[in-house]
Amino acid sequence: MLICLVYLGVWGVRRLKVFGVEPSLPTLSCEYGEHVARCYLYDLQMIATRDSGNYYRRLIEPTLFFVALGILAGRLWCGWVCPLGFLQDLLTKLRRRLRLRRIAFAERGRRVLRGLAYGLLAATLFIALVIGWPGSKLYKHNTALFRPYCQICPSRQLIPLIEGKSEDFLMIDRFSSVSRVMSSLSMGFLGVFIVGAFSSRRFWCRLCPLGAIMSIIRLNRFSLANLKKDTVACTRCGICARVCPADLTRPYEERRKRGVLDRDCIFCLKCVESCPEEHVLQAAFCGLPVFRSSYDYFSKGQPIAPEMRRTLTQRRKERPQESERFLTG
Length: 329
Hints:
- The protein is mainly α and 329 residues long.
- It has helices at 2-7, 40-50, 55-58, 60-73, 76-80, 83-97, 107-131, 155-162, 177-199, 209-216, 239-243, 250-253, 270-274, 295-301, 306-318, 324-328; strands at residues 24-25, 38-39, 225-229, 281-285, 288-292.
- A hairpin with a 2-residue loop joins strand 4 (281-285) and strand 5 (288-292).
């Protein structure tokens, strides 16, 4: 949370620069805020709508930054840096305080939401390219529609509000009829964000077009950050699947491979901290373990029924010694 507060610019942190160049981060940001960094999706839209003649050449620099930072940490950017992810986690904590049940999505529901994310990404890029082409009939709307996704993203309303610009919250842009429509859509998407994030964990992450890009190119597959599992010692308790904010089941279902990092995993490490088995799940960076599951950590983090405590203790005693291969592999 501290990382996100700094990233949001609450303490006046200015735009991130590397050798005088603003890198394109693999996480949602907001151009409507003064202090935050710049996200790759913003660059995609700006280059397509403002510089169509040099589109591919101008896209090289932000793409290199995006890929390099993505390989460095994968979708850990989503789990630990994205400001919208942080705000969703706050809404989840509020729901738990109110003791309200959440909505869990089955595999079919996750596929539908993933399809909507791909559709939103495709529509964003299509509109950006079309209005950036001088021969298009929509070119006249270039000024009012030059950042199609940014104009409806929940960040447009939330980030300026967090920075203290209350006058920009729920403001209608009256520049043109198109801008008025986009402003109204942004309020609708803000409502979807709040209701969705309050009723389901990390709901907007399932609709995020930038997350869709990382999912399509399978950025987690090439990341230096990884998630590993000792399939021999796993007792199939299913806790990892229940605590996952993205409702992913690969860490639970995998029976053979050690690597269990799903393409949609945001690397929040809830599965690792909630696993009651010693070193069954572990987060690794560059092949070196940085965080391992343990019964002691699990038992300190949440209340455990006596029956479950006895069951877990018995399972630990019966764990095959063969699983030690995992710790030295």
